[in-house]
Amino acid sequence: MAQPFVLLPTEDSHQTLQIQPPSTGLGLRGRIRVPGDKSISHRALMLGAIASGETTIEGLLLGEDPLSTAACFRAMGAEISELNSERVRVKGIGLQNLQEPIDVLNAGNSGTTIRLMMGLLAGQRDRFFCVTGDESLRSRPMARVIQPLSQMGAEIRGRQGNTRAPLAISGRSLQPIRYVSPIASAQVKSSILLAGLTCEGQTTVVEPALSRDHSERMFQAFGAKLTVNPEEISVTVEGPAELTGQAVVVPGDISSAAFWLVAGAIVPDSDLLIENVGVNPTRTGILEALQQMEAQITLENERIVAGEPVADLRVRSSNLQAIEIGGSLIPRLIDEVPILAVAAAFAKGTTIIRDAEELRVKESDRIAVMASELGRMGATISERPDGLEITGGAALQGATVDSYTDHRIAMSLAIAALQAKGQTQIQRAEAAAVSYPDFVPTLQQLLG
Ligand code: S3P
């Protein structure tokens, strides 16, 4: 019998994931765990590095993105023990004590690393920093962070009129601001709040819709003075902050669990339990959207772990129905739109996703790439300027598709391939390791 999953190295040092789903008895059953939450992992490393005393991190994501964060902060003097998912120790060096690195800091593929770090570096007086990233990151917009930080007095220069990395940052004393952000972005919000920690007085960020609030929760846990105003959707920090190292426990990443939620819903005869998943309400838009599609998903064993809500998620095979989504739900499921598009390809009716133009500036243009690659597999899918329109029900056929080096695209296409007829080849599939290094072994375990 043909191997259901094979990773084939290619001449240009990428990997192609070949998927040949078994023709019968595919049902996905059993219990699985997903790796640690990416957003929380970055924040735990960063706050640990700038706090006083020791921070311990249980359940850190060992994906390439948090590894980039750890490497950058080590280069600036933070002592971070060997990285593992059991217990990492970070010896903090204080909020204003990051050392000037002797070389360029490399954020790799990680928007969270570069944007959050910029907020911190801007306020490191009399030190100079250069920050860059991979080809994808160097093409992503940085003005959304550079502009508000400049209003605080930051001196940041970059390519293309100070909008793209590589960036040069000359640390300065910053002044607090009240910033009304035009986009609901946790990276923008967190970057300004991190800068706000270093200056004297109150820094406020107002958002058009609530983005993930992991920074707010962790700032409070580390002892920062922070207030949230839900009426105007704003958050205020008071600096200069005194942060103290904490014991952080990172829950499983709901963005990684989303692949299995959709797989369990679209593959017949499935019944999967995904244990220990973070269900922070600013992240559970995907559960609401899938439940609205009539996916059979239940939350079990709901609890609070180190300040974040956690649950086990059970999913069973479902008859999905199309939905229309937009507005304030979008920031609560922004990273899950690619896999939601796969669910929509198996739902009855036409799904419309609006107000999601931010997807065009993620690790790839996720609107264009999902439309083209899912289209290659036979899905009825078209681009809108601000989202996607997908009519479910067309039988998918195995095809050669490309991840465009985007981790979430690689994994979304792999889940679509489970329900496609014949063989699918996903080019540059190694991108999955950015957020989910064990994605392919978990697929193998489920089919084993
Ligand atoms: C993240 C925020 C989101 C998200 C990204 C992680 C974070 O980006 O897409 O994967 O950890 O703050 P934006 O802030 O650009 O929406």
TrEMBL record:
SUPFAM superfamilies: EPT/RTPC-like (SSF55205)
Name recorded for this polypeptide: 3-phosphoshikimate 1-carboxyvinyltransferase
Organism (species): Synechococcus elongatus PCC 11801
Function per UniProt: Catalyzes the transfer of the enolpyruvyl moiety of phosphoenolpyruvate (PEP) to the 5-hydroxyl of shikimate-3-phosphate (S3P) to produce enolpyruvyl shikimate-3-phosphate and inorganic phosphate.
Lineage: Bacteria, Bacillati, Cyanobacteriota, Cyanophyceae, Synechococcales
HAMAP family xrefs: EPSP_synth (MF_00210)
Gene Ontology biological process terms, A to Z: amino acid biosynthetic process; aromatic amino acid family biosynthetic process; chorismate biosynthetic process
Reaction(s) catalysed (UniProt annotation): 3-phosphoshikimate + phosphoenolpyruvate = 5-O-(1-carboxyvinyl)-3-phosphoshikimate + phosphate
Keyword Membrane annotated: no
Designated gene of the protein: aroA
Localization per record: Cytoplasm
